[in-house]
Protein backbone atom coordinates (compact mmCIF):
# COMPACT_ATOMS: atom_id res chain seq x y z
CA UNK A 1 0.00 0.00 0.00
CA UNK A 2 1.60 3.27 -1.18
CA UNK A 3 -0.56 5.51 1.03
CA UNK A 4 -2.11 7.25 -1.99
CA UNK A 5 -5.87 6.77 -2.22
CA UNK A 6 -8.10 7.19 -5.25
CA UNK A 7 -11.87 7.12 -5.60
CA UNK A 8 -13.86 5.67 -7.20
CA UNK A 9 -12.17 2.42 -8.21
CA UNK A 10 -14.44 1.97 -11.20
CA UNK A 11 -16.56 4.39 -13.17
CA UNK A 12 -18.87 3.59 -16.06
CA UNK A 13 -20.49 6.45 -17.92
CA UNK A 14 -21.78 7.50 -21.33
CA UNK A 15 -20.27 9.63 -24.07
CA UNK A 16 -20.74 13.35 -23.55
CA UNK A 17 -20.89 13.07 -19.76
CA UNK A 18 -18.64 14.63 -17.14
CA UNK A 19 -16.90 12.82 -14.27
CA UNK A 20 -14.65 13.73 -11.35
CA UNK A 21 -11.84 11.54 -10.07
CA UNK A 22 -10.46 12.12 -6.60
CA UNK A 23 -7.01 11.59 -5.14
CA UNK A 24 -5.61 11.91 -1.63
CA UNK A 25 -1.81 12.03 -1.47
CA UNK A 26 0.42 10.36 1.09
CA UNK A 27 0.58 12.18 4.39
CA UNK A 28 3.11 15.00 4.11
CA UNK A 29 3.41 14.95 0.31
CA UNK A 30 2.94 18.32 -1.38
CA UNK A 31 2.90 17.29 -5.04
CA UNK A 32 0.20 15.41 -6.89
CA UNK A 33 0.51 14.03 -10.41
CA UNK A 34 -2.14 12.65 -12.77
CA UNK A 35 -1.51 9.99 -15.42
CA UNK A 36 -3.60 8.21 -18.03
CA UNK A 37 -2.84 4.62 -18.98
CA UNK A 38 -4.49 3.07 -21.99
CA UNK A 39 -3.62 -0.19 -23.74
CA UNK A 40 -2.13 1.45 -26.80
CA UNK A 41 -0.33 4.39 -25.20
CA UNK A 42 1.17 3.31 -21.91
CA UNK A 43 1.45 5.74 -19.01
CA UNK A 44 0.99 9.34 -20.14
CA UNK A 45 1.71 12.26 -17.82
CA UNK A 46 -1.19 14.69 -17.66
CA UNK A 47 -0.49 17.33 -15.05
CA UNK A 48 1.32 18.08 -11.77
CA UNK A 49 0.27 20.28 -8.86
CA UNK A 50 2.59 21.43 -6.12
CA UNK A 51 1.09 22.83 -2.93
CA UNK A 52 -2.02 24.02 -4.74
CA UNK A 53 -0.32 25.49 -7.80
CA UNK A 54 0.00 23.97 -11.26
CA UNK A 55 3.66 22.97 -11.72
CA UNK A 56 3.86 21.06 -15.03
CA UNK A 57 1.56 20.15 -17.85
CA UNK A 58 1.80 17.14 -20.13
CA UNK A 59 -0.54 15.78 -22.75
CA UNK A 60 -3.72 16.93 -21.06
CA UNK A 61 -6.71 17.60 -23.29
CA UNK A 62 -8.62 20.88 -23.03
CA UNK A 63 -11.70 18.85 -21.98
CA UNK A 64 -9.77 17.76 -18.88
CA UNK A 65 -8.95 19.94 -15.91
CA UNK A 66 -7.53 19.43 -12.46
CA UNK A 67 -7.04 21.25 -9.20
CA UNK A 68 -5.40 20.75 -5.84
CA UNK A 69 -7.22 21.93 -2.76
CA UNK A 70 -5.83 23.51 0.45
CA UNK A 71 -5.94 20.10 2.20
CA UNK A 72 -3.75 18.86 -0.73
CA UNK A 73 -6.24 16.41 -2.15
CA UNK A 74 -6.72 16.69 -5.90
CA UNK A 75 -9.51 16.21 -8.39
CA UNK A 76 -9.33 15.46 -12.10
CA UNK A 77 -12.38 16.55 -14.06
CA UNK A 78 -13.10 14.93 -17.42
CA UNK A 79 -15.85 16.43 -19.55
CA UNK A 80 -17.52 15.77 -22.92
CA UNK A 81 -16.30 12.21 -22.59
CA UNK A 82 -15.46 10.19 -25.67
CA UNK A 83 -15.01 6.46 -26.15
CA UNK A 84 -11.25 7.00 -26.41
CA UNK A 85 -11.12 8.41 -22.88
CA UNK A 86 -11.68 4.92 -21.49
CA UNK A 87 -8.51 4.14 -19.55
CA UNK A 88 -6.94 3.71 -16.15
CA UNK A 89 -6.29 7.04 -14.45
CA UNK A 90 -3.58 7.10 -11.83
CA UNK A 91 -2.69 9.65 -9.26
CA UNK A 92 0.79 9.82 -7.75
CA UNK A 93 2.27 11.96 -5.02
CA UNK A 94 5.74 13.00 -3.93
CA UNK A 95 7.21 14.80 -0.95
CA UNK A 96 8.25 17.93 -2.75
CA UNK A 97 8.23 17.97 -6.52
CA UNK A 98 10.07 21.27 -6.65
CA UNK A 99 13.26 19.69 -7.99
CA UNK A 100 11.42 17.43 -10.40
CA UNK A 101 13.40 14.43 -9.24
CA UNK A 102 11.23 13.23 -6.39
CA UNK A 103 10.14 9.64 -6.28
CA UNK A 104 6.46 9.42 -7.13
CA UNK A 105 4.23 6.94 -5.28
CA UNK A 106 1.18 5.76 -7.20
CA UNK A 107 -2.35 5.10 -6.10
CA UNK A 108 -4.42 2.06 -7.13
CA UNK A 109 -6.08 3.91 -10.02
CA UNK A 110 -9.59 4.59 -11.29
CA UNK A 111 -10.80 2.54 -14.22
CA UNK A 112 -13.00 4.69 -16.45
CA UNK A 113 -15.21 3.06 -19.04
CA UNK A 114 -17.06 5.29 -21.48
CA UNK A 115 -19.92 3.57 -23.33
CA UNK B 1 12.41 15.16 -28.48
CA UNK B 2 12.68 13.46 -25.09
CA UNK B 3 12.29 9.71 -25.39
CA UNK B 4 12.46 6.59 -23.24
CA UNK B 5 12.75 3.17 -24.88
CA UNK B 6 12.56 -0.14 -23.07
CA UNK B 7 13.68 -3.50 -24.40
CA UNK B 8 12.72 -6.21 -24.82
CA UNK B 9 8.96 -5.70 -25.01
CA UNK B 10 8.46 -9.11 -23.42
CA UNK B 11 10.81 -11.57 -21.75
CA UNK B 12 10.11 -15.17 -20.85
CA UNK B 13 12.42 -16.81 -18.32
CA UNK B 14 12.60 -20.08 -16.48
CA UNK B 15 12.72 -19.86 -12.71
CA UNK B 16 16.34 -19.22 -11.69
CA UNK B 17 17.37 -17.93 -15.14
CA UNK B 18 18.98 -14.51 -14.59
CA UNK B 19 18.61 -11.73 -17.17
CA UNK B 20 18.57 -7.95 -17.70
CA UNK B 21 16.02 -5.39 -18.86
CA UNK B 22 17.16 -2.28 -20.69
CA UNK B 23 15.97 1.32 -20.56
CA UNK B 24 17.62 3.76 -22.95
CA UNK B 25 16.82 7.45 -22.82
CA UNK B 26 17.31 10.62 -24.80
CA UNK B 27 16.36 13.62 -22.69
CA UNK B 28 17.37 17.24 -22.42
CA UNK B 29 18.28 17.07 -18.76
CA UNK B 30 18.02 14.02 -16.55
CA UNK B 31 16.92 14.81 -13.02
CA UNK B 32 16.19 11.23 -12.05
CA UNK B 33 15.52 7.76 -13.46
CA UNK B 34 12.94 5.52 -11.83
CA UNK B 35 12.07 1.84 -12.01
CA UNK B 36 8.59 0.60 -11.16
CA UNK B 37 6.88 -2.78 -11.15
CA UNK B 38 3.24 -2.96 -12.28
CA UNK B 39 0.88 -5.89 -11.90
CA UNK B 40 -2.19 -6.07 -14.20
CA UNK B 41 -4.86 -3.53 -13.23
CA UNK B 42 -2.78 -2.16 -10.34
CA UNK B 43 -0.82 1.02 -9.78
CA UNK B 44 2.93 1.07 -10.42
CA UNK B 45 4.96 0.03 -7.37
CA UNK B 46 8.20 1.95 -6.77
CA UNK B 47 11.44 -0.01 -6.95
CA UNK B 48 14.44 2.32 -7.42
CA UNK B 49 15.52 5.90 -8.09
CA UNK B 50 18.89 6.62 -9.74
CA UNK B 51 20.29 10.12 -10.14
CA UNK B 52 23.76 9.94 -11.67
CA UNK B 53 25.84 7.76 -13.98
CA UNK B 54 27.61 4.98 -12.13
CA UNK B 55 24.98 4.71 -9.44
CA UNK B 56 23.70 1.24 -8.50
CA UNK B 57 20.91 0.09 -6.18
CA UNK B 58 19.84 -3.36 -5.04
CA UNK B 59 16.74 -4.88 -3.53
CA UNK B 60 16.35 -8.62 -3.06
CA UNK B 61 16.76 -10.21 -6.53
CA UNK B 62 16.82 -6.86 -8.36
CA UNK B 63 19.71 -4.54 -9.14
CA UNK B 64 19.45 -1.28 -11.08
CA UNK B 65 22.37 0.48 -12.75
CA UNK B 66 22.68 3.78 -14.62
CA UNK B 67 24.97 5.11 -17.35
CA UNK B 68 24.75 8.38 -19.26
CA UNK B 69 22.48 6.86 -21.89
CA UNK B 70 20.78 3.85 -20.36
CA UNK B 71 19.78 1.92 -17.29
CA UNK B 72 19.64 -1.79 -16.67
CA UNK B 73 17.45 -3.76 -14.30
CA UNK B 74 19.20 -7.03 -13.52
CA UNK B 75 17.08 -9.87 -12.20
CA UNK B 76 19.01 -12.63 -10.46
CA UNK B 77 17.47 -16.10 -10.07
CA UNK B 78 13.91 -14.89 -10.71
CA UNK B 79 10.86 -16.56 -9.22
CA UNK B 80 7.34 -16.80 -10.69
CA UNK B 81 6.19 -14.01 -8.35
CA UNK B 82 8.58 -11.65 -10.17
CA UNK B 83 6.29 -11.86 -13.21
CA UNK B 84 5.01 -8.34 -13.91
CA UNK B 85 5.53 -5.37 -16.20
CA UNK B 86 8.63 -3.35 -15.32
CA UNK B 87 8.44 0.34 -16.15
CA UNK B 88 11.28 2.81 -16.51
CA UNK B 89 10.64 6.56 -16.19
CA UNK B 90 12.79 9.67 -16.42
CA UNK B 91 12.18 13.10 -15.01
CA UNK B 92 13.43 15.81 -17.32
CA UNK B 93 14.55 19.36 -16.92
CA UNK B 94 11.03 20.48 -17.80
CA UNK B 95 9.60 18.75 -14.74
CA UNK B 96 7.79 16.25 -16.90
CA UNK B 97 8.00 12.53 -16.25
CA UNK B 98 8.27 10.30 -19.29
CA UNK B 99 7.54 6.58 -19.00
CA UNK B 100 8.76 3.87 -21.29
CA UNK B 101 6.30 1.33 -22.68
CA UNK B 102 7.54 -1.31 -20.23
CA UNK B 103 8.92 -4.84 -20.38
CA UNK B 104 6.50 -7.67 -19.62
CA UNK B 105 8.35 -10.34 -17.68
CA UNK B 106 7.05 -13.89 -17.44
CA UNK B 107 8.83 -16.33 -15.12
CA UNK B 108 7.86 -19.97 -15.43
CA UNK B 109 8.29 -22.43 -12.57
TL;DR?
The complex is a heterodimer of chains A (115) and B (109). With 115 residues, chain A is an all-beta fold.
Descriptive account of the structure:
The complex is a heterodimer of chains A (115) and B (109). With 115 residues, chain A is mostly beta strands. Chain A has strands at residues 5-7, 10-13, 19-24, 31-38, 42-50, 53-57, 64-68, 74-78, 87-94, 105-106, 110-114. Chain A is built from no helices and 11 strands. In chain A, strands 2, 4, 5, 6, 9, 10 and 11 form a 7-stranded mixed sheet that branches. Chain A has a 4-stranded antiparallel sheet with strand order 1-3-8-7, with no helix packed on it. Chain B is mostly beta strands. In chain B, the strands form 2 sheets. In chain B, strands 2, 4, 5, 9, 10 and 11 form a 6-stranded mixed sheet that branches. Chain B is built from no helices and 11 strands. The mean pLDDT of chain B is 94. The chains are: A mainly beta (115), B mainly beta (109). The interface between A and B is medium-sized, with 27 and 26 residues.
- Number of E-type strands of chain B: 11
Rg of chain B, Cα atoms, Å? 13 Å
Largest interface (CB within 8 Å) is between: A-B, 27 and 26 residues
**Could you give the count of β-strands of chain A?**
11
The total of helices of chain B stands at: 0
Order of SSEs of chain B:
EEEEEEEEEEE
From the spread of the alpha carbons, the general shape of chain B counts as globular
Q: What's the N-to-C terminus distance of chain B?
A: 41 Å
Class by alpha and beta content of chain A: mainly beta
Stretches with pLDDT under 50, minimum 5 residues of chain A: none
Helix segment count of chain A? 0
Mean pLDDT of chain B: 94
Shape of chain A: globular
Q: What is the SS-derived class of chain B? A: mainly beta
Oligomerization status of the protein chains: heterodimer
Strand content of chain B: over 45%
Q: How are helices and strands ordered from N to C of chain A?
A: EEEEEEEEEEE
Which ranges of chain B are low-confidence, i.e. pLDDT below 50, for 5 or more consecutive residues?
A: none
Portion of residues within helices of chain A = under 10%
Amino acid sequence: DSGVTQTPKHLITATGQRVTLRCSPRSGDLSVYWYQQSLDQGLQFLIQYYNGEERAKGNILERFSAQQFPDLHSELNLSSLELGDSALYFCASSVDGASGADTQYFGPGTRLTVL
Amino acid sequence: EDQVTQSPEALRLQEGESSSLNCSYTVSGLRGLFWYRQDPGKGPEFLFTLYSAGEEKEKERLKATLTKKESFLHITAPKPEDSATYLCAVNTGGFKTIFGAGTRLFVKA
